[in-house]
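Support request, please re-run this one:
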Amino acid sequence: MLDTLLLGSVAKQLMTADEVEVEGRRLPVRRTSRQGLRTVTFSVEGLLYAAIERNPGKPSRWGELARSGHQVVQFKDVQANRFVAVAVDGEAKEYGTGKKRGQPAAGRD
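Re-run finished. Output below.
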């Protein structure tokens, strides 16, 4: 399970500063070569993650949120090469921890 408070902090710093502090280490925020999106790579408990600002020009739901003024950052597990979490306006959520599609929420009939 990921530390969503830490991811939220990384997302806020990524969108507002030139450096991100993770577990006492200061890491530079870089820009992607094509679109100039903010990104930073960091490690937590020996695992490497990349935080990437979402492109507001994309037709995805994350792009739509970014276009409407929200700060959207996705987190990628670098070794597994898959996205594991998202933060919207500093509130992070790990993928795969919510209810499954097509199933009712717990406690509802």
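The first strand starts at residue 19 and ends at 22. The chain is about 20% helix and 40% strand.
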